Amino acid sequence: MPIILHNFLFNVYPYICLAVFLMGSLARFDRDQYTWKSDSSQMLRARQLRWGSNLFHIGILFLFVGHTVGLLTPHIFYEWLITAPQKQMLAIVSGGVAGLVCFVGLTMLLHRRMFDPRIRLTSHKTDLAILIILWIQLVLGLVTLPFSYAHRADASAMLILADWAQHLVTFRPDASALIAIDWPFKVHMVLGMTIFLLFPFSRLVHVWSGFASLAYVLRPYQLVRSRRLNLPRAQDPARREGGRA
């Protein structure tokens, strides 16, 4: 890969994707709230949807949290508890299991979307496209597992990727060390960033609503108190009834 393209993809492209992800989501919420939904097809073949959706969401949530914590947590914060090679093996095993669970669920959803005539008729092209992109991304993630296992002794791959991610979030991009990373990692990273780029223009925006529901659950209780108006006796229904009694 030419060095100019390499620097663009891993030093500049992440910020482009993040800007479009945030601003695009805000613009869509402001201008097209009626399209802010998951477009559920639960009424059509609900059993396959239930299994596929549950497996997919369980797997993808675990992978999202694992990637976020694993990449953005500095090594100094966990070295007293677990070594870098041990952490990489933990990531390989747990990520592999979650990836397989997610793969089964996503394959079921993709099969349902592609081969059920009624569901395909009611689906948007972007629905099918985003599922295919997610499926390819998941396959690429599973492909990286043997490469990660090959670097298990020194955890070099994990440390290089974590260092790159931490430099990005602190606005000190440095992709020089990524040159030595195996190609599946690079393709997986670029496609992952592209998913964030496409996020505001797809049904994935409903993910924001999922995070918002957590804030709704944790909100303080609303106190509702009854209040009687100080009405004259002739205008107070309760007093009139009491007087007649």
From TrEMBL:
A Pfam family: Nitrate_red_gam
Transmembrane segments: 12-30, 51-77, 89-110, 130-149, 195-218
MF annotations from Gene Ontology: electron transfer activity; heme binding; metal ion binding; nitrate reductase (quinone) activity
Gene Ontology cellular component list: nitrate reductase complex; plasma membrane
Compartments it resides in: Cell membrane
Keywords in alphabetical order: Cell membrane, Electron transport, Heme, Iron, Membrane, Metal-binding, Nitrate assimilation, Oxidoreductase, Transmembrane, Transmembrane helix, Transport
Residues that, per the record, bind heme b: H57, H67, H188, H206
EC number: 1.7.5.1
UniProt superkingdom: Bacteria
GO annotation, biological process: anaerobic electron transport chain; nitrate assimilation
EC class name: oxidoreductase
Membrane topology category: Multi-pass membrane protein
Main location: membrane
Swiss-Prot/TrEMBL catalytic activity: nitrate + a quinol = a quinone + nitrite + H2O
PANTHER family membership: NITRATE REDUCTASE PRIVATE CHAPERONE, REDOX ENZYME MATURATION PROTEIN REMP FAMILY, RESPIRATORY NITRATE REDUCTASE 1 GAMMA CHAIN
NCBIfam families documented for this protein: narI
Subunit (UniProt): Dimer of heterotrimers each composed of an alpha, a beta and a gamma chain. Alpha and beta are catalytic chains; gamma chains are involved in binding the enzyme complex to the cytoplasmic membrane.
Protein name as catalogued: nitrate reductase (quinone)
Organism: Orrella dioscoreae
